[in-house]
What does this fold into?
Amino acid sequence: MTRLKSRPILPVLLAILLGNAVRCPAVAAYPVQDKAGKIASVSRATTIDPRLQKIVEEELEKAEAELHPQKIIAIFADPNTGKILAMASRSEQSGKYGQAREKVSNEAISFCFEPGSTFKMVVCAGFLKEGLGDEKTKIFCENGSFACEGKTIKDYKPYGDLTPLEILVKSSNIGSAKMGLKLGAAKFWETVSSFGFGRKTGIELPGESGGALIPADRIDELRLSRMAFGQAAGVTPIQVLMAYASIANGGILFPPTLVSDPKALKPTGIRILPEPIAAFIAEALVLSAPELAQVEGFSVAGKTGTAQAIASDGGYPKNQYVTSFAGYFPADKPKFVGVVVVDRASVDEKINYGGLIAAPIFSRIITQAAKHLNLVAIQPEQLDVAASNGSQHHSLWKYTICGRNKKTKN
It folds into this structure.
C-alpha cells in the first residue's frame, strides 16, 4: 500500500495506537493495514467523540492514582453502529503522554485476560437459543459445591434451584457450569465464537489480539465447566465490548470501527440472537448491574467480572486479580456500551472485585457522558414502570423462541 501524505498525527495516533488518548481532532493521520499486513497512513475522519474521550482519559488518570494498577483500560462505543467513541488505557509500562515508549500496544485491543462473570451471559444465551430450557427451567446449583471431573466448583453463596435469569443475577458459577455442560463442547464453542470471541474483531488498527480459546475438540468436561463461568478462556476488552453491544441492540454483532465515512453505507452486522432472547439477557443485565455502576435518574445494564490475573509463565499469582465491568446505558435506549478493565489493582484483596473497582469508574464516565449528551433523567416513578415492564420479556421469549424450538423437535 502506498503511503499517502497527511497532516501530522498529533495526539490521535499516539492516543489510539498507544492507548493514551488525550485530544482528538476530527481528521487525523490514521494507520491502516493492507492484506499483506503492511501499515500505511491515510487521512481519515475518526469516530472518536473528543468530549467523551477527554472524560475517559481524565477518569482513568484519577483511577490510576487511586488504585495503582498494572493496567487500566476503558473503551466505549455506539451499540447500534459499532462506532468506537472513546478508547484509552494506562499502564506501568506506558509512562506519561509525550515520553518515549517501547513495546507498548493499545491494551483495549491487545490485552488478553480471563473475563470471569462477564462471560456468563454468553453461555446463558447459548443455552436458551438451543432450546435446552426456558425462563421457568430450574437448574439445581448443588447448595454451593459441585464436583466435576475431580475438581470442585463453588458459589459465593449456597443456592438450590435457580432459573437462567436467577443464575445470571446471582452470578452462580455452578449454574453457569451446568448450562455449559448441557450445551456440550461443540455448541458452546459455536456460541462463544458467534459472539466474536476467539478471533480478531477487524478494527482498523495494528496489534490486535484474537484472544485465546481452546479448540472445541480439546474441550473436555472440566474445561467446559470452567469456561462457562469465564475461566480458561482469554478475551480482549474490545471483544467483550462488542458482545455486550449485541445484547444492547437486540441481538446483532457489529464489527467495531474507528473510521467515520459519511459516504459509507449504514453499518451492517450479523444477527447472532433472536430479539426475544437478547431482551431476556438484557433484563438479567439490568438486574445484575451493581449499585456502584448506577447513575442517578437512569437505568444501567451490565455485569461485573473478577478473575485471577495470569502471569507471564501462564500461572496464577496469589491474590492478584483482573476486575472488570461491561455494560450499557441507558438500559432502555442504549447510547453507549462500555468496558472497564483494571489489572491487578493495589488494593486489599477483600475489596478487589469488579463491582467495587471497575463499576465505579464506568459510573463516573457515563454520569458525565449523560450531561455531554443532554440526556434527560427518568423520574423514579418512570423507573418503576420500566422495571415492571421488563417482566414482559419472559412471555415474549417463551412463545416466540421456546415454542418454535419445541415444535421443530417434535
Remarks:
- The chain has one domain: 10-409.
